[in-house]
Amino acid sequence: MYSYEEKRRAVELYIRYDKSCAAVINELGYPSRGALLDWYKDYLEHGEIREVNRYRRYTNEQKRAAVEHYFEHGRCVARTMRALGYPGSKELLSGWIEELAPDRRKTRPAARSFTYEQKRDAVVALESRNGSAKELAAQAGVTRCIPYKWKRQLLGKEAVHKMMADVTNLPDDADELRAEVASLEKQVRELELKKAILEGTVELLGKEPGADPNRLTNREKTLLVDSLRSAHKLRDLLAALSMPRSSYQYQVETMRHPDKHADLRARVADLFTASDGRYGYRRIHLNLRSEGIKVSEKVVARVMREDGLVAKRGKRRRYSSYKGEVSDAPENLINRDFRASSPNEKWLTDITEFRIPAGKLYLSPIIDCFDGMVVSWSMSTSPSAELANLSLAAAISTLDGSERPICHSDRGCHYRWPGWMGLCERAGVTRSMSKKGCSPDNSACEGFFGRLKVEMFYGLSWKGWSVEEFIAEVNRYINWYNKQRIKTSLGGLSPVGYREKLGIAA
């Protein structure tokens, strides 16, 4: 049952999200689609969500009718409730029976309890075939299934199957029994060791579940061995990891010496954190070089690998705005040449989709081919023509009177309506379009979407984020992208930094 506040919040979100049941359920985790529609219908009919009173009062006649039905139809509480449709709980009907017929209610005899020894003797007799289950149950005064239940409780499911398979093949000699026990104990130790290694690979070294311990570096294997030596023998650990003792001793001696890259590790970690985990070793290396720290890319890559600093990666999904040919398409003037000699010479645009529990959102940017700067952008919960027009109008407002850029897009319907074409004509912007269904013709814009989603969207949980909060986070990322995110193609500078170096106003 849901409280009044929970129902009210669900209905308010349902109205706010344009009556989308899926958006409400994704964000709140409740209720079912039918329940939400019932709450909304109740809200429309009464102007508010009514609180349901579960404690309905029943008349004396209804109570007597329920008690009479109980006695006349087999003394079953559940059957009486199904037949009459009331009361709402078994406890309430039981109370009526105790009140109106206290000495006639059907009661079950108290269950007989058995000691551990009694259960064990019955299981031993069952497994050694000293009587059938029916006979043993009759002797104990229980049903036939109870001895099997005790067997599962005392031995467990796997032990039961193993005992049933091996009970007729047990060796008679005591030495053979001891050898069998020793073999089983060895298998248990091996399994415990394997389990400890797998857990250490994930928890200590931060690897993905299912990672192969034999593919670890010697340094990682050494750290793992040292963490497990208190519980397992060294030779068993080295054998399980396929690591020679000499390699282990070398790593131990190496780790005893001071880390010559200690300062570098700290700075690399700071740069990685400052980028929100988006930079790989190449961009970290460019940052270090700009700070005057001379170190090779290989050293940076090794330090990041050893410290578990892995740049964000995620699976990519695509949104398509193509709705068919609605008007004549202009020529592809860009023709996959995304180079530009000056700002506002070539622009690229497209629309991409984000799906979060609060609903879907759409981003429409204008990207300058000169340095990849996002000139303008707009976001909305609907991929409408207005979304595309807003970003174009904002980009046009940055032009001076002499600039006449080419604006390239795909064949989406947003770029073929009169509003878009009118904006381009009045500002002197030349339209250009990709071939039908050919995403490589606008690959530079697609590449921006890929970087944005990998570095800021994929792999993160957006549960509990509102639409407004998510839009603010995208805005924060794009501002960071323009002003701080360095690009190798710009010599380790951000788009704004590159323009400042050239003396161009950003």
Summed up:
By secondary structure, the protein is α/β, with parallel strands linked by helices.
Distance between the termini: 57 Å
Shape: flat
Quantity of strands, as a count: 6
C-alpha Rg, in Å? 36 Å
* Series of H and E elements: HHHHHHHHHHHHHHHHHEEEEHEHEHHH
Number of helices in the DSSP assignment: 22
* Average residue pLDDT: 82
Share in helix = 40-55%
The proportion of residues in beta strands is 5-15%
| SS-based class | alpha/beta
Regions with little confidence, pLDDT below 50 for 5+ residues: none
User: Major sheet: size, sense and barrel closure?
Assistant: 6 strands, mixed
Describe the structure.
The structure is a single chain. 52% of the residues lie in helices and 7% in strands. The chain has helices spanning 4-16, 21-28, 33-46, 60-72, 77-84, 90-100, 116-127, 133-140, 145-155, 157-166, 174-203, 218-228, 234-240, 245-256, 262-274, 281-290, 297-306, 385-396, 418-427, 443-456, 467-483, 495-502, and strands spanning 346-349, 352-356, 359-368, 374-380, 406-409, 430-433. Strands 1, 2, 3, 4, 5 and 6 form a six-stranded mixed beta sheet that branches. The chain is flat, with a radius of gyration of 36 Å.
